[in-house]
Design brief:
Layout (H helix, E strand, L loop, with lengths): L6 E6 L6 E3 L1 E13 L9 E11 L2 E3 L4 E6 L14 E6 L5 E7 L1 H6 L11 H5 L23 H4 L8
Antiparallel strand pairs: 1-6, 2-5, 3-4, 3-7, 7-8
Length: 160
Amino acid sequence: MNGRPTVYIDVTNLGHRPTTAREVGFYAHPREFEIIREGGSQPWATAKGEITFATGPFFLDAGQSERVELVPDIDAWGIHADFPLRVYAVDIRHRRIWGDAAPIVRMLVGENPPLHDSDSEELKRLFIPPKPELRPSQVEPGWKIWKRCELRRPQTWRLD
């Protein structure tokens, strides 16, 4: 009751063969990073990476389930509490299996998050209601018509 809110994801191998789940977690969006050398003030290099909250790997026999416990740390990345995070899993062949998107952090903390007066303004800003409606990130190219529409066009996403 006094710890951070936690999400549990149940991963099940529905196949007839054993497999390894390389990674299971929540996907936020890609982000550009700047690398600054120690003692320097100018960026030494830039890179593009994905913001994920993930764990793994673990082995699953056919029909076996595994429960994964995650705590999305949004304050480290500046992600709004209402931003829809998409659940995903990466199998042994590096294929991503996408799940639904939902405002996970808002569902965990509710409408009245446990903020204190001593918390930073940056943290408090992550919990105020957003002005535009937030949508999950696009995770599949638009030309992959065999993929779900909400994976290709985030504007079709709606919270059920």
